[in-house]
């Protein structure tokens, strides 16, 4: 369930200079890591939440410069869950696709910050900057990972009324799209039990890895000649 910050073995990329302070903090596993920090203007926050003893999730929140707070239409927050499992949302989706800066730290005109605040979490523990101090603490099921994520949200939302006013939309792709459903159920149960002060706005799934057999079979037209015959064979 672990992944290095090369963003996968097949596509290594350089770590932006912006990440070096965070990397220095997170490399001191049992001490010195950031519980919460941010920019002076409040446009960004990041840190760790200990979701279980010796198990820590890393999060990074961007506040949109276009944010408009109204009672009738509150500004949304989008929680991105990367695929894998083990893909870094902080690294991959943030810098490569929807965050305010690209991997060369240039401003991205198409950032999703134009429509929502963005919350990235390196999930599950062992992904990106998230870590455990004992390898026996890695999760083994989606429900365990969802419980950890729910614990992180309790820490971020239960003590911050301004976040509570912003509805949370969970968006994910690939295996993250499968995991997002489990996470959504875990979050909803915590809300109904009064354990999490959060407005769950909705769930969006992109190319979710729900049925591998069907997904692979449907891709036969893009493969080599006669591959469709091989793929469609059943034992």
Automatic annotation (TrEMBL):
<comment type="similarity">
    <text>Belongs to the peptidase S10 family.</text>
</comment>
<dbReference type="GO" id="GO:0006508">
    <property type="term" value="P:proteolysis"/>
</dbReference>
<keyword id="KW-0121">Carboxypeptidase</keyword>
<dbReference type="InterPro" id="IPR018202">
    <property type="entry name" value="Ser_caboxypep_ser_AS"/>
</dbReference>
<dbReference type="InterPro" id="IPR001563">
    <property type="entry name" value="Peptidase_S10"/>
</dbReference>
<keyword id="KW-0645">Protease</keyword>
<dbReference type="Pfam" id="PF00450">
    <property type="entry name" value="Peptidase_S10"/>
</dbReference>
<keyword id="KW-0378">Hydrolase</keyword>
<keyword id="KW-0732">Signal</keyword>
<dbReference type="InterPro" id="IPR029058">
    <property type="entry name" value="AB_hydrolase_fold"/>
</dbReference>
<dbReference type="GO" id="GO:0004185">
    <property type="term" value="F:serine-type carboxypeptidase activity"/>
</dbReference>
<protein>
    <recommendedName>
        <fullName>Carboxypeptidase</fullName>
        <ecNumber>3.4.16.-</ecNumber>
    </recommendedName>
</protein>
<feature type="signal peptide">
    <location>
        <begin position="1"/>
        <end position="36"/>
    </location>
</feature>
């Amino acid at each position: 369930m672990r992944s290095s910050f090369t963003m996968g073995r097949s596509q290594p990329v350089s770590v932006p200079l912006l990440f070096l302070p965070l990397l220095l903090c997170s490399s001191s596993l049992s001490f010195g890591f950031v519980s919460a920090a941010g920019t002076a203007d409040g446009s960004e926050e990041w840190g760790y939440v200990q979701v279980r003893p010796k198990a820590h999730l890393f999060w990074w929140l961007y506040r949109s410069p276009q944010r408009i707070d109204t009672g009738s239409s509150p500004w949304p927050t989008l929680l991105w869950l990367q695929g894998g499992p083990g893909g870094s949302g902080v690294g991959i989706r943030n810098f490569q696709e929807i965050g305010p800066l690209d991997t060369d730290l240039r401003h991205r005109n198409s950032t999703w910050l134009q429509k929502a605040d963005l919350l990235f979490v390196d999930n599950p523990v062992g992904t990106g900057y998230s870590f455990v101090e004992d390898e026996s603490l890695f999760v083994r099921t989606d429900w365990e990972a969802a419980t950890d994520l729910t614990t992180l949200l309790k820490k971020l939302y239960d003590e911050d009324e301004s976040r509570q006013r912003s509805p949370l939309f969970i968006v994910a792709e690939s295996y993250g799209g499968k995991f997002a459903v489990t996470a959504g159920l875990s979050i909803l149960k915590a809300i109904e039990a009064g354990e999490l002060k959060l407005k769950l706005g909705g769930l969006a799934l992109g190319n979710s890895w729900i049925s591998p057999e069907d997904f692979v079979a449907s891709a036969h037209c893009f493969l080599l000649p006669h591959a469709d015959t091989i793929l469609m064979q059943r034992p």
